[in-house]
Design brief:
Blueprint (H helix, E strand, L loop, with lengths): L72 E2 L28 E4 L12 E4 L2 H15 L13 E10 L4 E13 H14 L15 E14 L11 E7 L5 E6 L1 H7 L3 H11 L8 H4 L3 E8 L3
Antiparallel strand pairs: 1-6, 2-3, 4-5, 4-6, 6-9, 7-8, 7-9
Helix pairs in contact: 1-2
Length: 299
């Protein structure tokens, strides 16, 4: 975008929320009935107007802070559980994204073609594995065996949606890189059962669920809070609130696009979600530390 860029975002040290649920009314003054703080030093929710801010109900995992977000890799219904590999839609059809059958993405912190760049394949099997984990837990079976996909470490989010309109049902993740096999096991259940915005999932909901997995890569610190693309980059902001406390909040790439927000509206929404209640001025926006990142996904 032609703006000066600071290089060196470190995704493993970040913690924030990252998803929208409903369209928010954005203004320079705190909205009535606005939600509580987003994430501070630990993890936090990343919902929209109906669920902006708030701490997850469970203690942070050993792999890093918990966060909520709107996922990217869309899976399907409960037919994935304890079944052979399914087609790309995983029994539930696409969720508005149509990448190729497999996507190759650079590893976290690496350039897309620079030295030391390793590749990963994001597969629909990851969503099916999440369904297996949830299915076995709800029915009291032994956990599923280790999957065939890579066990490389990545920051990740697991998102659940439900119904034909794909309403958000749960979403929690981490910016700390975790091995995928253990990370997906952990956050499958955390997002399904311990997202404090929703009651724990039940067996009856399995046939109507859709699963999403996001693997986050290519973190970059930028000097200009406008230096990111709507619908392309996920963003994480860090700021000092009116009480002098450091806060963070994040949105995955598709949130701003789906909500119809521009750069300013997205930043202001993140500030509100992160618990900032004072009037938002352009001068304050310039004090924000912004990190942009890219998700790995497949539908």
């Amino acid at each position: 975008m032609g703006r000066k860029r600071c290089v060196g975002g470190d995704g493993s040290k970040m913690a924030a929320g990252c998803c929208g649920v409903k369209k928010q009314k954005l203004s320079s003054s705190p909205p009535s009935g606005s939600a509580g703080p987003g994430s501070g030093g630990g993890g936090s929710h990343c919902g929209g107007a109906a669920a902006a801010g708030g701490e997850p109900g469970a203690l942070p995992p050993s792999g890093g802070p918990r966060m909520n977000g709107l996922g990217v890799l869309a899976g399907g219904a409960a037919g994935c559980a304890l079944s052979p590999p399914l087609p790309l839609s995983c029994g539930g059809g696409p969720a508005g994204l149509s990448p190729p059958a497999s996507s190759l993405l650079a590893s976290p912190g690496a350039g897309s073609g620079g030295p030391g760049c390793r590749k990963m394949v994001v597969s629909a099997e990851m969503c099916c594995f999440c369904f297996d984990v949830l299915y076995c837990h709800l029915y009291g079976y032994q956990p599923p065996r280790s999957p065939r996909f890579t066990n490389d470490p990545y920051p990740l989010f697991v998102t659940w949606k439900i119904g034909r309109d794909k309403r958000l049902r749960g979403c929690i993740g981490t910016f700390s890189a975790m091995n995928l096999h253990s990370g997906l096991r952990e956050y499958t259940l955390t997002s399904a059962l311990k997202d404090s915005r929703f009651p724990p999932m039940t067996r009856d909901e399995l046939p109507r669920l859709f699963c999403s997995v996001s693997l986050l890569t290519n973190f970059e610190d930028v000097c200009d809070y406008m230096d990111w693309e709507v619908g392309v980059h996920g963003i994480r902001i860090e700021f000092i609130n009116e009480k002098g406390s450091k806060r963070t909040a994040t949105y995955l790439p598709e949130v701003a696009k789906e909500q119809g927000w521009d750069h300013i509206q997205t930043i202001d929404s993140l500030l509100r979600k992160g618990g900032y209640k004072a009037p938002i001025t352009n001068e304050f926006r310039k004090t924000i530390k912004l990190t942009r990142y890219a998700p790995g996904y497949r539908t």
